[in-house]
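To: structure subgroup
Subject: Chain for Friday's discussion

All,

I'm putting the inputs and outputs inline so they're searchable in the archive.
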Amino acid sequence: MFKSIQPLVFSFDVEWIPDPLAAARLFGCPIKTPGEQEAAMRLLWEYGGATPEKPQPYLKTILCRVVTLVGVLREKPEGSAPPKLRLISLPLKLDTPWMEQEKAILQGFFESVGTKKPQLVGYNSAQADVPILVQRAIVNGLSCPGFARRPEKPWEGIDYFSSHSDYSVDLAPILGRFGQMPALNEVARLSGIPGKIDTQGGGVAELWLEGRLDEILAYNECDALTTHLVWARFAHFGGLLSDEQYKAEQQAVRDLIGREIQNGKPTLQRFLDEWDRLEAIQPTIH
């Protein structure tokens, strides 16, 4: 269980696909057209042990390309003022050429985290999200000292790589290991929180090939909101949020979603509708 809630919390989620450029570098295949990019992905899946029963196996993350990164940034002012929430969605420009998008996403993430030093919160992030971000930053030749620098002693600074640090919180292993570790969708829905609504992770590659990056981003936004709501549930369980504070956190997320819908993201209305449906059949905290 994590021990604290820091003034800045970033509950985040990452979406990635097999990287056509990785296939080009490993196998020398062409990747100029969508058809060639799809063929390059198939080569990577074959390289990763594809079978007729499992044609798209989970790949080593270094072979994959980050296509979106979304997080809920929670800022708690000093004193009794309530926390402020913002939804951060990357890439900022969906029409950027695909070869340039990953580097822009990684630069935006690492520069912001390296400067502001938020408490990172993810689900299975220690095994998946953080490693792919670090691996792909190295592949892209980025320098990220603000994130990567480690203190000589644990109490002398923030360490995003230590398993004992409270600045990189992975919620998944708190609940169990191996076969007993629930998926985010499972723990969320059983807690009355929306999980997967439409797209599953395996469908992201197909959406990307079809140029539907906006749909991937919308899917990623729902996962980030779900992650933040599950984090609040954990914090309430651990006594870091009182009953009243937990209810206020949920309302803050609802208010955030309402603002995002007003600002041109109507797809999030489905998240709200599903949240209402699940809450209607779940016990609530009084």
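Points worth raising on Friday:
The chain is about 45% helix and 15% strand.
The CA atoms of residues 69 and 109 lie 8 Å apart.

D.
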